[in-house]
Amino acid sequence: MNYNGYITRLFLRILVLVALILGVVYAFDKGYTSIGTIVSFVIVYFGYTTYVFVKRRFVVMDDFFEAVKYRDFSRWFPEDRGPKDIRFLYRGFNEVNRTIKEINSKNEAQYVYLQKILEMVDIGIIAYNLDTGDVLWSNDSFRETLDFPSFKNIRFVEGRKPELYDAIFETYHREPNSISIAVQNEKIKVLISDTVFQVKDDPFKLIVLQNIDDTLNRNESEAWKKLLSVMTHEIMNSIAPISSLADTLQTHLQLTLDNPEEYPLELQDINAGIKTIQNRSEGLLKFAKTYRSLSKVTHLSLEKKMVVELFDTIKLLMQPSLDVKNIHIDFKVTPPKLELNIDSYLIEQVLINLIVNAVDACKHREEPQIRVIAEQKPNRNIVIKVYDNGSGIPQDIMESIFIPFFTSKSTGSGIGLSLCKQIMLLHKGKILVNSKEDEGTVFSLVF
């Protein structure tokens, strides 16, 4: 603010007063008593006007501070009357009042907005004074959960239902805790947590309460639906190649029965095919047993497994169905004696999933091709890669493909890749993907 005019006038008044006082002293010293008396009256008058001049500014500031003290920001100071420095002071006060009213208006709007949000949530919230029990704020959800009307003090609950009062208000729940409370003659399960905070000298307690009975029932229903979806997906993925291999074996046997000389029976092929069906059936049975406990795979039966043997099993299992679709598949292991410490049944499930996805991705290509390559990296990690020259994965969904139940297929369930990821995490490994649209995709299993 600019007080130059005020300071200048005050300085001039002080100079005049000093000059008059010196004049009075001089007049009385020279014997001019009458002149000295007159000048003395002038000094008194001029001193009084100077006092009023200074006091007026302090009165204005005192009025403003009094308004601030009582939170009265509605007062308006006249900006077009009085001396220039007073008008300038008035403008400053008015600007402060405008700013504070704007801040108060925004705070009130935010408070109303916050209240509306808290009223809309289905989680009960209450805040009350720990010393007096007076309720600072509570929402409808809290009262509906406890089946209570609106109350201003928590002692109201104590008088009606002491046990409920002890469980909710007297017991501290620093961490979210599940408890059972009696409401409307029945027990309901709620999740409760609380915290204590200080506002000036008053301690307050904030309690958050959520009825989880309905949520648990909904989640249980959804879990059953998802479980059935997972089971269906994984069983179909395993049964399809088993059925195809069994059909191939049956065809060979029928040809041998019809014309044994032209189609001699290859016992080694028959034995290998039956053994593959048996192994895969055992893996599927183990998978089904794992889900029977309503949980995902959590336990591994680790064993040393030659990667070549793993690939031979997958090739024998998948080859017949791939031949029908004219899809070429290659398997390669470097070095040939590469070995993994894995749960072979679960890793077979992962490879089957990835190959089935690759088949789906490249089925419309003129020369569809799938490659499965295992190699050991210089850092000793073993990587199995499944390549295809299919349609690729769009970049906008690349980050979502491992999310459970996310799928871009019209007939997919969205659990195959999420299950692959979980199985790899159980093996302390990871699954990576690199894809380009219209060029192909490669999934990497890193052990």
From TrEMBL:
Molecular function via GO: ATP binding
Reactions catalysed, as given in the entry: ATP + protein L-histidine = ADP + protein N-phospho-L-histidine
Histidine kinase domain ranges (all copies): 230-447
Keywords: ATP-binding, Kinase, Membrane, Nucleotide-binding, Transferase, Transmembrane, Transmembrane helix, Two-component regulatory system
UniProt enzyme class: transferase
EC number(s) on file: 2.7.13.3
UniProt cross-references to PROSITE patterns, sorted A to Z: HIS_KIN
Superkingdom of source: Bacteria
Transmembrane segments: 10-28, 34-54
Protein name: histidine kinase
Protein species of origin: Aquimarina litoralis
